[in-house]
Design goal:
Strands 1-2-3-4-11-5-10-9-8-7-6 form an 11-stranded mixed beta sheet. α1 runs antiparallel to α6 and α4 crosses α7. Helices cover 37% and strands 26% of the residues. It is an alpha+beta fold and 324 residues long. The longest helix is centred in the N-terminal third of the chain and has 18 residues. The protein has 2 domains: 149 residues, Aminopeptidase (3-Layer(aba) Sandwich), CATH 3.40.630; 167 residues, Gcn5-related N-acetyltransferase (GNAT) (Aminopeptidase), CATH 3.40.630.30. It contains 10 helices and 11 strands. It is globular.
């Protein structure tokens, strides 16, 4: 999904990043390999090449380690010749260490094989933490609305209202609303937003992206006052059953930090397999703290996150383009 023109266009429209690709294929021939990346230019956090900003992963489209080594050598030359602060690669699969590159951050992906079908998938879920939550949501009469470009502006706004609440709980600024609007407009039929409501009140929402056989969970938000009703479980189950009905074979729960034990456990209980992921950076970065957390910790005190929502939304709009 993160290689698509729609994802790249949304990054460019929202944050001004310049997308580019590198290949060994001669002009006028079919592409045999490629690495796609964005040129991030920030007067705050520096100039760098990232493959790709705000993407959970972006697999190098190469056949073997030797081909990847050639690309990495070229990236090192680009960094030296053009003064980029660093180059970062985000492969989804393990890769051999490359000269000048070292692992900078580590995550887990959670991938669920959908081929067994809804009945078997539900039976494999944790009985108390997943199955019971889904049944509770159904008993409470939660409803789910789904939208795609052309009919989802109102749903996007409901999602965003919940996102602002969620990011406040996490002590982080919300992403700019334009990011989600541009993502919907650029990805079109690949984009879905779902909102769970209780008697007309939105209590949980998620955004998924789908390409060929895979559905990717990308963003989620909820009202903590209604967590007991299982709104997020309800939406995940709806997304999974819809994916099965459409003939898709994999559900990607997205990345998680190794220290997010609660989130890791939540995804484990759906029966998804953990896949370790390492980002690679040249020159090497030894820190395991996310760029967003470092930036926020440096620029704002804890009291900032108790500011009015309008201020926090404005701050997120200002900050995110410097973080990618």
């Amino acid at each position: 999904m993160f290689h698509t023109a729609g994802w790249l266009e949304a990054l460019q429209r929202t944050y001004g990043y310049e997308p580019a690709a590198m290949t060994t294929s001669p002009p006028g021939t079919d592409l045999q390999d490629a690495l796609v990346f964005c040129k991030v230019r920030s007067w705050v956090t520096g100039r760098r090449l990232v493959s790709l900003p705000f993407s959970d992963h972006c697999e190098p489209l190469v056949e073997n380690a030797q081909a990847l080594a050639a690309f990495c050598e070229r990236f090192r030359a680009e960094r030296r010749d053009h003064g980029w602060r660093y180059v970062e690669l985000r492969p989804a699969r393990p890769v051999m260490p490359q000269a000048g590159f070292d692992a900078s951050e580590r995550f887990f992906l959670h991938l669920l094989d959908l081929r067994p079908g809804p009945v078997a998938l539900l039976a494999a879920c944790h009985k108390d933490s997943v199955q019971r939550k889904i049944r509770r949501a159904e008993r409470e009469g939660l409803t789910c609305e789904e939208g795609r470009p052309g009919n989802n502006e109102e749903l996007l706004r409901r999602f965003y209202g919940l996102l602002v609440m969620t990011r406040r709980r996490h002590q982080l600024p919300p992403q700019p609303f334009n990011w989600f609007r541009n993502l919907a407009a650029c990805c079109r039929e690949l984009f879905s937003v779902r909102v769970a409501s209780l008697r007309g009140r939105p209590i949980a929402a998620m955004i998924t992206l789908q390409l060929r056989d895979t559905v990717v969970y990308k963003y989620g938000a909820s009202d903590a006052a209604f967590h007991a009703l299982g709104g997020m479980h309800f939406l995940f189950w709806k997304a999974i059953t819809d994916a099965c009905a459409e003939g898709r074979t994999a559900f990607d729960f997205g990345r998680s930090d190794p220290d997010q034990t609660g989130l890791l456990t939540f995804k484990d209980r759906w029966g998804a397999a953990r896949v370790p992921v390492s980002y690679w950076r040249c020159p090497a970065s030894r820190t395991a703290v996310s760029p967003l957390r470092r930036w926020v910790d440096a620029c704002a005190s804890r009291a900032f996150f108790h500011a009015p929502d309008g201020i926090r939304v404005a701050a997120g709009t200002l900050l995110y383009k410097h973080i990618g």
